[in-house]
Amino acid sequence: MNDVTQLSELFLLGEEEEALKFVRNYLNSHSYEELNEQLVRPAMYRIGELWEQNKVSVAEEHLATAVCEFVLSATEIRAEDNDGRLKAMIFAPQGEEHYIGLKMVAAMFREEGYAVRYMGPNVPLDAALSLADDWQPNVVALSGALAHRLPVLKTYAQSFTKLKHGPTVLIGGRAVTLANYGEYSVKGAVIVRHLGALREWIRTGKGSNDDSTLSTG
Ligand code: B12
């Protein structure tokens, strides 16, 4: 059994302690980014495939997600608090319920020293806009898992880019890796397709040279 299969089985069995031990052991020889991109994401995608094929039940998939969330929270790296940190607000739009990817994004911003407001999934636009107006984040990061979420992501992105303090809006998630997002590009918003590209954006303010990885509207 490879690592991805092994971890997904621990998730499906609800083996919290074993899953945590497995992940901590993996982290002895891998980065947190490798953990997220090469182990946890594929493990959850595998569970999605088994679910689609009716090989696991909704209850097992929920259990697996809960264990996954526990493991991510337990292993997160936080930079020390200091004054004058850049601020990132992170959430998914109304209707979107998937949030494991968002948690990874929030973790990466924390690891990179940002102050983070992580609001989870299914956040109404007005409420998010009013929080952003008060807190004035430098970055607003949005996520969508299903392709039909692209129009609502576009609406959200347009609204945030119009805020007076002008945050950068990042859009990511499975939806943008699947779809032809060209028609959804928004001026001032950046589409980021994976965590490596996000790290690069955070550190340099730019995407990688690979145009298919990241595109600006
Ligand atoms: C767990 C799960 C659920 C849980 C979510 C709980 C939770 N807490 O998140 C629940 C049960 C709620 C759920 C519901 C549904 N789901 Co679901 N779900 C999944 C599953 C198995 C795992 C999701 C996950 O955690 N993935 C792992 C994370 C790490 O991956 P990720 O989200 O892609 O994030 C990565 C990148 O995209 C990126 N990223 C994500 N966001 C952002 C944001 C930024 C700014 C950046 C830079 C990067 C970034 O970072 C991550 C690391 O690379 C997936 C399978 C899959 N392939 O994802 C199906 C899956 C996404 N779901 C699916 C479906 C169909 C549904 C439902 C419609 C089912 C239904 N009939 O009710 C509903 C829709 C709910 C809704 N309105 O949103 C399908 C989608 C198929 C499609 N048409 O696209 C999938 C693919 C399963 C399948 N194979 O059929 N689901």
UniProtKB/TrEMBL annotation:
The lineage of its organism: Bacteria, Bacillati, Bacillota, Bacilli, Bacillales. It comes from Planococcus dechangensis. Pfam families: B12-binding, B12-binding_2. The keyword Metal-binding applies. Keywords: Cobalt, Metal-binding. Residues 85-212 form the B12-binding domain. This is B12-binding domain-containing protein.
